[in-house]
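Our preliminary data section would be incomplete without showing what the modeling component actually yields. Below, a chain of 289 amino acids is followed by its predicted structure, encoded as tokens that our downstream tools consume directly.
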Amino acid sequence: MELYQLKTFVAIAKEGSLTRAAERVFTSAPAVSAQLKALEDELGVKLFERTPRGMVLTPAGRSLREEAERTLDSAMRMRSAAEQIRGAAQGVVRFGTVVDPVALRLGDVLVKLAERHPQVTLQLRQGLSYETLAAVQHGELNCAYALSDDEEVDGLELRRLVPVELVVALPAPVSRPGLTLEELTQMPWVGTPPSCILRTHLEKLFAGAGRPYRQGRTADNESAIRSMVASGMGAGLMRLDQAEQGRRNGELAIWEGWRSRTWLCWLAGEGRHAAAVDAVRGAVLEAWA
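Predicted structure:
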């Protein structure tokens, strides 16, 4: 039994297709089929059923998939440990970020990384959550912070770091007791692009009032949303800590009739855990311990 056979098995399980699995493991569909047959012969069990909807795991396949994933994780950790031993934690890591650096504890991460892995350099790129997530999936970024509601993302390692509370912020002059959800959704709004997680929660808020959200004014970062709300351009969603700071400064008010939650997560591409990315992961998780 070879590790590449286990990788192929897991890839087929994730994709449900020999062709897509071949793309994931960078080989041909006939090679994937041959590797699967060799593994089934080795194990003496049938791992998949071929159906009109694609490749479906058998009960034996579902059970053995967990063992295969654990074996691959162990092999990956062993490679990473060997790279650490021979001092291979070096190079440039393309790291995606969202929201402000203070909220991300980037300062702590950079200090820990410089102390322990001085040959690892971060190349930071800021973007919206869904764009950043897609960039990690496509290999344009090695790892990233992102706001996400998901507990897992296919093809990525996802670590939830901290919950993020979301609230509705209002221009101070329009805030009043007894404001209803229906009245709220009839106000002007400062929205975000569809590639921002805040847009997803904004659409859910409007759905609760039985009406669709129609995009008008938009901002692509929290500072811009806060500024536009404070200037009276409309209501907007933002992180609770940002809204509370704005309220303390007399810039805006918080509507108490709704709250939502998402998560600040750390993401990395599965199978691309080089020593440098492992070093970044360690610094991030320690900063958020």
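The chain has eleven helices and ten strands. The CA atoms of residues 92 and 121 lie 5 Å apart. Preliminary results of this kind motivate Aim 1 of the renewal.
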